[in-house]
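Q: C-alpha cells for this one, please.
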Amino acid sequence: MKKFIRAVALDLDGTIIGPDEQISSGTAKAVSRLAKLVPVFINTGRERWEVKRYGTELGLTSPQVSDNGAVIIDPLSNWEPLWHALLDPEITTEVLEKIQRQSLPFIATSKSESVQDISLAFGREFSRISVLDMKEDQAEKILMDLSVSTEMQVVKAWLPYNELWAVDCTPLGVDKGSAVRKIGELISISTQYIACVGDSYNDLPMFRECGMSISKGGAPNSVEREAD
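A: Here is the predicted structure, written as C-alpha cells:
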C-alpha cells in the first residue's frame, strides 16, 4: 500500500548537522521548504536548548524532541516543555555512582538544566544521563554494564563532532520511538504516515515506529539494514 507522508522526524548529529555542528545552507533550505508542506520535528539526544537553537534556525513550529525522547518542547510557547519524563531516583543514583567510580565524563539533563559536575549531580531529578566521549570498545562495556538494569532504556550513539561514542540512559519505555508516538498524538498524525531520517543506534526505535525510515550515509551496517 502506498504511504503518504504527513510529517517528518529528523535526527541532528550526522544527519542534518555535520562534525562542525552546523547546518549547511543546502540542508537548511531543503528542511525549511519541507516544513512548509508537512510538520517537521527534530528528534535528538541533545538538550532542549540545542533543539531550540537548530529549530529556530530552520523556522520549525511543530513540537520538537530532545534528550532521546525524554523531553518534548513547543516552539510556539517560547520553546517551553510540553512533556517530560524522569529517571527513577534510585536508578539515577546508581548510574551516577558508576560514573563517579570510573571518573567518566557525562552530562545529566532535565527539562530546565544540565549538570556535568558529579559533585552537583546527586539528589537531583534528571530525564537523561549520558556517558560521553568514549572509544567504541569502552562504550560497549559501559552499555553492557548499565543494561543490567531493567528500569531504564540504555543505548549507545556516535558523536560525529569528536568521532567518539556516548551511552545514553533514559526512563524505561522512553526513546526516540516513543517520542514519535507522542508527537503523532500531539499533531493528530498516525506514525505510519511519519517518515524519519537518522544514522545511529539510538535512531533504531524511531526507524521501527515510523512508516518510512531513511538511513543517512555513513551509518553502521546494522542501522542501514533496518532502514526502508
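A few notes: The longest helix spans residues 89-102. The chain has eight helices and twelve strands.
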